[in-house]
Amino acid sequence: MTTQHAAPEPVIGGDYLATTGRPVVGVAPVTHPGPLTASALPPTARCRAVGYVRLRPDTDTAASEQVTARLRGFAARSGLDLVGIYTEHPHPFRQSAFGELLQALCRPDISIVVIPGPEHLSEFDGIYQAMRALIEIETGADVLVMSHTIEAMP
Predict the structure, then answer these.
(1) 3-state secondary structure of 57
(2) How far apart are CA 153 and CA 151, in angstroms?
């Protein structure tokens, strides 16, 4: 005997801040309106995407610019319109770029996230899988990993 549950509406945030587990006061949950249907887009429109990059503490400006340039090139070759790149800096007092990424994915015209490699979500496979699932399930967006393609090889 199996029990079936109705799928809840995707909600990001709820009542807790993901990084600390503390309650968030005065912030409403963010819901994703769902992807645009193919008929809602002009026939020549390219899929819109956003990028996400997590920098290590020892990453210099030149290396950061190289990663974002490779991400933009990959998106262009893949036929994607990369509308922004969210860069996670290793400074504790900056706002989370991952949170901003989730907010951007609530726009119905953005349906893809491009990352340079799995380590940009997490260096640990289990956490990487959980963060990828959060993006895909909660927002409906697809995650493209650049390092899993032949184009990413040197």
Answers:
(1) coil
(2) 6
